[in-house]
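Page 47, continued from p. 46.
Same chain as before, 305 aa.
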Amino acid sequence: MQNIVVNGRQLLPSVLAALLPSRLCREVEETVPSGDAVEELRLRRGRCASLTVAGRNLRLSTVLSGVEMDDLLLRLCEGSLYAHSETVCQGFLTLKGGIRVGICGRAGVSGGHVTGVSEVSSFSIRIPHPAPLLGEEIVHLLHRLSLTRGVLVYAPPAVGKTTLLRTVAARMAGGDRPLRVAVVDTRGELGYSLSSPALLLDLLSGYPRGLGISIAARTLSAQLIVCDEIGDMKEAKEIVEAHNCGVPLLASAHAADIRELLARPGMRLLHESRCFGAYVRLFRRPDAFDFDYDILDWEAADALL
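Result:
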């Protein structure tokens, strides 16, 4: 099946359109406003599906049955649930093209760990889009910090942090004065569209964040490390070690405000180690695929504590 294209627009990637029920694809085609792109497709067992377009949630009439949801999970796993059991138990799958599928359902738990997921109740399908014009402010901020300290971008989920990081990584690894950029792509979505042969970029795909950051700093001699969704204490300790090697980190985290962010033990360790020279709160501009920024330097953030 080819990409769903209307008036020159590619609404769904072909790898995804080939997996979804045809009636759902047709409704997506009929629903997305002219000039907009699908950012997320949400499928729910026995409930209406929905789209996120330009930051707005659009309800669809399509309702998938339990049988259709279970069949779709098998399709997403290329016919082998066992081969993808590790990431499914962590709540996600990654398709070709950097498409991330969040998964939830009935969890089987043993010893405090999820051992399997059945009766899938929801798929959250995030569709990445190249955005070459974004991120100029973050590029300037990294250079103002003389690449001696990193930048942490934070926002609630689904604002666009991964898209921003991906675009800044391409800008820093390209152009007339490129840097050696290492991208730690734990979930297989951050590296989407970073395939240009002109980029001085090393992609560590599937590595745990902490290990990938350590390899990037110590083995690859990166000048900038980029990774998504940092947070726990183990990662924080490995980031501090990379910082002590003199390699700045551009990273993202989930948080609504700076106090919430720095209240977490791992983030507090990174702050006290002065790993980040600036904290950037990300906002989506209404009805546009663009961002506004609220930037605090380390001293201003520290004063708020």
